[in-house]
Design a protein that fits this description.
319 residues; elongated; disordered C terminus; 12 strands; 10 helices; Rossmann fold; Elongation Factor Tu (Ef-tu), domain 3
């Protein structure tokens, strides 16, 4: 995948393409539909296809002190787009200057002059420019004036969506925050995951017989706090089933939120390596225990349930 992160120096092969435009946080099934439409149009025109996205997410600029909300931080988003086979990804820095730029100037400066687009594919609710003044009607008008086509994709959803709801990043965030993994997974088309480096923790897990890999959550959304059945992908591609806790560890008086995951039937050192933890099912909310014995008993029960969910035998091996 060709990544274009400087629109003042666009490579020739990235010009004259059909582009799907959006934030693409989560790269969910609705986004995939947008990208597939761009690819189909490009194929009929004999030109390249790709996406135009923005970093950081506009919400991070407008609400810098707000809680973490990203389904896919920038590196994850690019990795998922690459896995979809996207040819070109143009990443436009979302700055204050861009936020206050008149919609017409955005079209001329970036879409027409820099990228020389031949066709745009956007969602039905796409807005752009200062005060979100640019809408589909303006985009269609400027397309006629400047010689590029516009295709608008209607809301996309299926039986996995609730009545009146389409695939959306907002719906997925809400589902994760309430522990509704079934809805989040259905709309994403895959389990939601966190990819991060393994940090050195306080090693209490080893003391109680359940060693864990500790991961910081960074810009990731904080899902419902509690225990999850998970799958873990190591940086060498191996996959293991496991049980994870996302929370503040109240039994030990902690207040920061982190992710701790215990891999089943695994005894290697993971410190410093990058792993991906996919959430498969929400087992129970986080709670405080009276002591280590009660905690150990509950972890054993949680592990047994996670093994059942993941289909791993008590003496099983990698997933």
């Amino acid at each position: 995948m060709l990544i274009v992160d400087r629109l003042d120096k666009v490579p020739p092969r990235a010009k004259g393409a059909v582009l799907a435009v959006g934030n693409f946080d989560g790269v969910h099934l609705g986004h995939k539909s947008l990208i597939a439409k761009a690819e189909a149009i490009a194929a009929t025109m004999g030109v390249p296809s790709g996406v135009l996205t923005f970093e950081p997410h506009p919400r991070q600029l407008f609400r810098p002190d707000g809680p973490p909300f990203r389904l896919t931080p920038a590196a994850d988003k690019l990795r998922l787009l690459d896995a979809l086979g996207v040819e070109i990804t143009a990443v436009l820095p979302f700055t204050n200057d861009l936020a206050i730029m008149p919609a017409e100037d955005f079209v001329i400066r970036y879409l027409v002059e820099a990228l020389q687009i031949v066709h745009l594919v956007v969602g039905f609710d796409f807005c752009f420019g200062n005060g979100r003044s640019g809408d589909i009607a303006l985009l269609n008008y400027m397309g006629e004036m400047e010689g590029f086509g516009v295709t608008v994709i209607d809301p996309v959803g299926d039986n996995d969506c609730k009545p009146g709801e389409s695939y959306s990043s907002s719906a997925i965030r809400k589902a994760l925050e309430t522990g509704d993994l079934a809805t989040a997974t259905a709309q994403l088309g895959r389990p939601w995951s966190v990819r991060s480096a393994v940090l050195r923790g306080d090693q209490r897990g080893r003391i109680i017989g359940f060693p864990t890999a500790n991961l910081g959550l960074g810009d990731y959304l904080r899902p419902a706090l509690g225990v999850y059945a998970v799958t873990v992908t190591l940086d060498d591609g191996r996959r293991f089933a496991g049980v994870a806790n996302i929370g503040r560890r109240p039994t030990f008086g902690k207040t920061d939120t982190n992710l701790e995951v215990h891999l089943f039937d695994f005894a290697e050192d993971l410190y410093g390596s990058e792993i991906e933890v996919g959430l498969l099912a929400f087992i129970r909310p986080e709670r405080k225990f009276d002591g280590l014995d009660a905690l150990k008993a509950q972890i054993a029960a949680d592990s047994a349930e996670a093994r059942r969910i993941t289909g791993t035998r008590i003496t099983g091996t990698s997933a």
